Amino acid sequence: MRNSHAATSFAHLLATATIAVALSAAPAAAQKKYDSGASDSEIRIGQTVPFSGPASAYSSIGKTQAAYFRMVNEQGGVNGRKINLIQYDDAYSPPKAVEQVRKLVESDEVLLTFQIVGTPSNAAVQKYLNQKQVPQLFSATGATRFSDPKNFPWTMGYNPNYHSEGRIYGKYILKNYPAAKIAILWQNDDLGRDYVNGIKAGLGDKAASMIVSDASYELADPTIDSQIVKLKSSGADLLFSASTPKFAAQAIKKVADLGWKPVHIVDINATSVGAVLVPAGLENSKGLISTNYGKDPLDPQWKDDAGMKRYFAFMDKYYPEGDKNSNFNTYAYDNAQLMVKVLERCGNELTRANVMKQATSLSGYGSDLLLPGITYSSSPTDYRVNKQLQMQRFNGERWELFGPIIEDDAAG
Q1: Cβ contacts of residue 191 below 8 Å, gap of 6+?
Q2: Which of 87-91, 144-148, 350-354 has the lowest mean pLDDT?
Q3: Is the CATH number 3.40.50.2300 carried by domain 42-160+303-381?
């Protein structure tokens, strides 16, 4: 009987020990979980960038990001792993983007895509990446379709939502130019349509009477001169350009050539001094209005700012040939910093599901170059990471911020 009791006690002890061992092993097993593209030594991420083609002004975005990850790797990587950024040129062509992204997923087996540049390229690969359940993270576009967790749970845009930005301009016009006759130049794609719908939403029931003319253009168009001539002839005294750098520069220059003097609002994509305003002519660009969420390296108020100093030191060492004053490069630095933050939060669970979990639960996260008072935040039901903006005006040399920080709290 005693032996039987001892045997039972031993069995109980053994079972308890086995459970204890299993429990102590559980965290160890949970410590490291990988999907394709991740290992003990590496995190493979991929992107397409228009290194050539009509939007090649954006190529410095990819160059800055590559330099940033090089710096991170030199400093020990992310939780001991090196970031391997694989970049392909898509020439801002949707079919090329599809081909290159398939290569990233099926041949290079990346863990995620990061900052694919441009609305057309992102739109072309969105369904494919969601079917494959590969994170399409921080896409370089603000089109509303890239902040739609219900239909595209694996896609997150980075740029402020174009519809929200357009709505902010609409409200700004109503308050400051209530009698304006508005002309709109817009790119014939999701980018242009979102801005137009946003500005109409901001103007509300005044939209129909205030908007007197609009003209669209195609990305393949060599110039937009005829569109600007048409808009001027409508008698408009306020021009809103929903465009990308090359066409924004053309519009600013043509407006000046015609001697037209409208209040001119340009979207956030067209605010680069080096890529847009210098080609258009700084004198021609004087008085332009737009928005921003990041610090401008040309603004003397950031001269002694710690974040700006870190950015300048990074550019000097890792991308010396890049233009330190370009807001494409400050933009790229900021979102590369955010990408590293998300990867750090993943710890040793580098799965695609955990990447999305971490990216969609950001709360009040600042960075070196966000304006004071502006932070990144996201949730499983609101994928927009940038929801705050401040108005700015170009003074002929640099952008000057004015007014309060405006938050768009309407999700989607």
Answers
A1: 119, 141, 142, 143, 162, 242, 244, 269
A2: 144-148
A3: yes
pLDDT per residue as tens digits for the range 89-146: 999 999 999 999 999 999 999 999 999 999 899 999 999 999 999 999 999 999 899 9
- Whether domain 163-292 has CATH 3.40.50.2300: yes
* pTM exceeds cut of 0.85: no
- The Cα 407–Cα 20 span in angstroms is 51
Q: Distance of CA 159 to CAs 114, 354, 384, Å?
A: 13, 22, 8
Nearest CA-CA partner of 242 in 316, 304, 167: 167
Domain boundaries, the chain: 2-31, 42-160+303-381, 163-292
